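Design request, tokens follow.
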């Protein structure tokens, strides 16, 4: 088992350098990263992606954007693909588009964004704006953000998918109170993806939503995996138990993420970060063994006791 420090060192980060193809960890990750299939197509995605809320809402200066440029570079090197954005996230779409185009990596990523407005024409205008900002002629996944005017937008998304402007369609929310409505939509077989909140301390989705998505062939993206940072605050200063090595868990972040990924209904979890070291750590959750049922129970008991 490698410690977080050792993993970061192997990634070439302790010296401040971002190595390329010779990077040992990147090569290892590309060969071994957990992939999960999109049920509606069979296309495989790496099981850990990148969220952009807050972290990518920055200005045009090099000082603001260089850390994010490094994140995207390292993500590509390690085999990561899924990047999730939204018009709600300020300048995130523009920053992602500018940086990925500048790095000549735009077409290497699985770009997901959202429509977040009311009314058909307003939705069309906003989605066209997202295409422009993200430097894309086609978006991989367009989602209806927080179910806002979802009945209206769903018809447009179907039309756009048929026309080849988007590849997949989905719906999202971030609160437990929306899970029942998301489950109803999932069971209607109208979407390819559903995105919602799920973490070790917020397990409402385990009641039925995750199983419903699996049973109905809908891919699952998970937001809020760290409970907006509350999980890290809870374990601050605490050491990982030795038994976590059985599941190739090298950090608290990996424990939180591997618990989520141990549910086979989950396609991809999208923790946000603007820090390369944290990105490497997060992507490490897609390596090695996942907790079995006994391990899942031990993790729940551990976090409940803290």
């Amino acid at each position: 088992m490698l410690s977080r420090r050792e993993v970061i060192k192997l990634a070439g980060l302790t010296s401040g350098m971002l190595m390329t193809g010779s990077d040992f960890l990147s090569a290892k990750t590309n060969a071994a990263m957990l992939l999960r299939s999109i049920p509606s197509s069979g296309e495989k995605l790496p099981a850990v992606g990148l969220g952009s809320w807050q972290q990518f809402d920055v200005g045009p200066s090099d000082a603001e954007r260089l850390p994010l440029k490094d994140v995207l570079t390292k993500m590509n090197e390690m085999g990561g693909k899924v990047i999730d954005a939204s018009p709600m996230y300020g300048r995130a779409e523009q920053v992602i588009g500018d940086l990925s185009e500048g790095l000549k990596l735009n077409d290497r990523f699985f770009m997901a964004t959202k429509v977040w407005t009311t009314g058909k024409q307003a939705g069309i205008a906003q989605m066209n704006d997202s295409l422009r900002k993200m430097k894309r002629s086609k978006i991989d996944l367009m989602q209806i953000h927080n179910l806002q005017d979802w009945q209206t937008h769903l018809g447009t998304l179907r039309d756009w998918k048929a026309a080849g402007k988007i590849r997949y369609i989905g719906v999202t929310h971030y609160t437990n109170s929306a899970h029942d409505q998301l489950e109803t939509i999932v069971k209607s077989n109208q979407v390819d993806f559903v995105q919602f909140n799920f973490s070790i301390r917020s397990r409402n989705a385990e009641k039925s939503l995750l199983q419903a998505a699996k049973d109905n062939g809908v891919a699952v993206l998970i937001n809020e995996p760290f409970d907006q940072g509350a999980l890290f605050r809870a374990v601050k200063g605490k050491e990982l138990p030795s038994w976590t090595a059985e599941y190739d868990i090298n950090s608290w972040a990996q424990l939180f993420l591997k618990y989520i990924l141990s549910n086979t209904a989950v396609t991809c979890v999208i923790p946000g970060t603007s820090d390369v070291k944290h990105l490497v750590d997060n992507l490490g959750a897609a390596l090695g063994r996942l907790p079995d049922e006994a391990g899942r129970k031990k993790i729940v008991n551990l976090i409940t006791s803290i």
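Comment from the thread starter after seeing the answer: thanks! The CA atoms of residues 10 and 90 lie 34 Å apart.
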